[in-house]
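Reopening this one. Same input as before:
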Amino acid sequence: IDFDLILEHVKDLNWLVGEGSCEVEPTARGARLRRAEPVLLALYQDGIVVGHGAFRPYQHPATQQCLQDIMDGYFPSELQPRYPDGI
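Same output, byte for byte:
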């Protein structure tokens, strides 16, 4: 696993979505700015954790798909059900 390359691709994806930017959230009395909550990605020597999910070894097919999506320049497809409008 080339951790440096994965981190480079994650930085590129974060830049695309405007890391640290705010969104306008409607309220009952108007609107307010809200920061989008990040999805955490923890890389370990033998696997990953995405968000608040369970630890997954690199040999797990879902882990391989997640990392392949990132390496291909896409957000992990496993996040689409939770974030249908993008992350």
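So the earlier flakiness isn't reproducible anymore. For the record, The longest helix spans residues 3-16.
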